[in-house]
Amino acid sequence: MQTSHSAPSSALAPLAYAWLALVALTLLSLGLGHWFHGASWLPLLVAVIIWLKGKLIARQFIESHIAHPFIARVLNAFIAFTPIALLLIAFFGTQFARWATL
Question: Could you say which residues of the chain have pLDDT below 50?
Fold first, then answer.
């Protein structure tokens, strides 16, 4: 088995850019929610923004690109869970509510 031995980065500029991108995506989310409240396509866009933020955090702050491939796959599945759950509840919420009632 071949493993990657690249060292974590100690540069602060990529972290600052990632932080600014996270702030911009958060402000974009707030603006979209305010301007397009109730639009049928909004949950899809919010799910994409959540996924982008998760991938950005995993790559820049957790440094998943230098992790063991198994750990990287588990982290990617974890990041994908929330947007998928959001979409399922947004588009199939009544079915999930019926399944959850006793």
Answer: none
